[in-house]
Amino acid sequence: MDFSFDETQQAVANLAATVLRHEPEHARVDNALSSPSGYDETLWKALAQAGLLALALPESLGGDGFGPVEVAAVLTEVGRQTLPVPAFATLALGVLPVVAFGTEAHQRELLPEVANGLVLTAALRATSSRPVAHGTRIAGTSVGVPYAAQAHRVLVRADDGVYVVDPHDSTVELARTPTSTGAPEYTVHLDGTAGELLTRDVRGVERYALAGAAAVADGGLAGALALTAQHIGTREQFGKPLATFQAVAGQIADVYVVARTMHLAALSASWRLAAGLDADSDIDVAAYWLAAEVPQALQTCHHLHGGLGLDVTYPLHRYYAQGKDLARFVGGSELQLDRIGVACTSN
Q1: Cα dihedral 194, 129, 150, 43 sign
Q2: Which of 15, 171, 189, 248 is 20 to 30 Å apart from 298, CA to CA?
């Protein structure tokens, strides 16, 4: 089976790489993360102006009508550069679920301004809901919600579906929590917050989240591998490049195998989603590989860099931090392995 990008998808990937390709100085990344928005607003605006945030919006709302594969192409480039922008939260956690499950009214309300940089996100740790005379009230606490304070709306998972919630409502309490990358993430506490039902298909929303995380991890590991290969190819010991030593060559080969597998797993997951096929097994495998193998491969990259990998002005630590946050987001390797096991025993 050929998983190569078609001409349009390759153009999307090339455009994203062009917008994101300039390696920012450490100070710029640090300043962006410590700013009130928590992200690089100039770069986020550039992505919007390039049309990359409107790729999956319906054509009727000014978008291009593309799907998960094109979004994955953008997220892969974001991961490759480890840049502080809310692309994963907005596109994978917000836009794709709203396009897939939202009514026309939902889409008109939530999507048009995404093209101009509006932020969306999702809280996928379960809360509870109760019907009231005029709508539904959501109560409970959800952890690990990226960019919740910066978002216009949050898709909140409840026990009976996924609801659209205003994170700035008086009944919502946001507590910022630490992340490895320093990117904004919050614990969201809802106390009878009004919510509008988006879909009863909780797993459907989660599919887009996991596939998006896999795409970011794919780009991140590819970026770390390229950085490490360049380092061992130019750094010398005993008068020879590090890459000529058998132990080093074996370790970088192991990282390459993990990176290629992550790439194929992430692309397969997005492709099956886009094709309307059963994607659960592919998504679970991609999430497991992300959680179990990617952090170890990034540790190997650190090892091959020696002390340089710990220098905060050198980009490798951002790849490692990004990998840790993504592995935590998908719930860890044991959860994903359990899901694979359940799927295997039920078939």
Answers
A1: negative
A2: 15
